[in-house]
Amino acid sequence: MKKIIIFTLLAIVSSSVTYAQNSSKSFIRWNKAVGIGVGYTNMFQEFTTQYEGISAPQDLIHFDFTIYGAYIGVDAKVKNTGYDVFGYDEQLGTWAIKVGPSFRIGRFENWRCIFTPYVGATFYTLSDTSNNAIGARDEYGAKETKFLGGYRIAAAYDWYYISFHFSTRELGFSVGIDFEL
Length: 181
Fold this sequence. Notes:
Layout: H1 2-20, E1 28-30, E2 33-43, E3 59-67, E4 70-85, E5 88-101, E6 103-105, E7 111-128, E8 141-157, E9 160-167, E10 170-180
Antiparallel strand pairs: 1-6, 2-3, 2-10, 3-4, 4-5, 5-7, 6-7, 7-8, 8-9, 9-10
């Protein structure tokens, strides 16, 4: 049900922005900018499974990119399990990928409010630093994958921005640069 609501909201916003593109001073329009930022994400909802009693990382490093109305967010963190695989460290990694359209809201010149609905997935993986599975306790690769659906809200002034993102499983912030085209 959450997926249907998020998809419906995304379709409504996208269609209203497309309709409003005829006016250069419309209240909602595409975020015609190029931006990059770095921040922090907390996965407040753990995965349902653990690996050998060890939870996947929940405090992640966040990177976001905006390119002419398209948003891409990437979260990542790797931690050692403490198990030795023939002299190499066994590792659990949490990853998240998010994509969505980016919209500018308001008619201000220097200040910009940026709204981005996004969908994506988060998953955790098992690997070791040697990148082979000899001596592993379990098969390497993705262990569990979960759906993400959420929003990113940013305030930009001149070239700089601060943003907050939140979804069904995570919450975080980022700061960066944003060049409006």
